[in-house]
Amino acid sequence: MKNHQAVASLLKQMMKHQNMQQVRLVREAGLSPRTLQLILSGEHDFKLSSLFTIADRLGLEMVLVPKEAAAAVQASQATTTEPVVETKVQAALNALKERGTGYAG
């Protein structure tokens, strides 16, 4: 990550993924609401200890790696997406639904 905005974006993604509200994170991390808001804005410099605390509460680990290895680390963090092509099983289930055969899946 190269800037505060990238850090803030990752923290917000993890909060969303874990359905973690700011109120809960403030309570669990022992930070003031204003401190968390400033960190999540990506526009404010913050203390490293605050970042360590937030990362810990979100199940993240801060690791420094050589720049040459950073691309591999980022690639390993890529999220999977739902398949675009419908599977044969899903197509069959959808056909049953459309026919009104009582399948409620």
The domain count comes to 1
At CATH level 2, the architecture is: Orthogonal Bundle
CATH topology description: 434 Repressor (Amino-terminal Domain)
Residue windows where pLDDT falls under 50 for at least 5 positions: none
Task: Quote the distance from N terminus to C terminus.
Answer: 43 Å
The fraction of residues assigned to DSSP E strands is: under 5%
Average predicted local confidence, pLDDT: 84
CATH top level label: Mainly Alpha
Number of helical runs?
6
Q: Return the string of H and E elements.
A: HHHHHH
Largest sheet: none
- Helix amount, in percent? 55-70%
For CATH, the homologous superfamily is named as lambda repressor-like DNA-binding domains
How many beta strands in the DSSP annotation? 0
Gross geometry: elongated
Structural class: mainly alpha
Topology record:
Blueprint: H1 4-17, H2 22-29, H3 33-41, H4 48-57, H5 67-76, H6 88-99
Keywords:
105 residues
Descriptive report:
The protein has helices at residues 4-17, 22-29, 33-41, 48-57, 67-76, 88-99. It contains six helices and no strands. It is elongated and about 60 Å long.
Quick synopsis:
With 105 residues, this protein is an all-alpha fold.
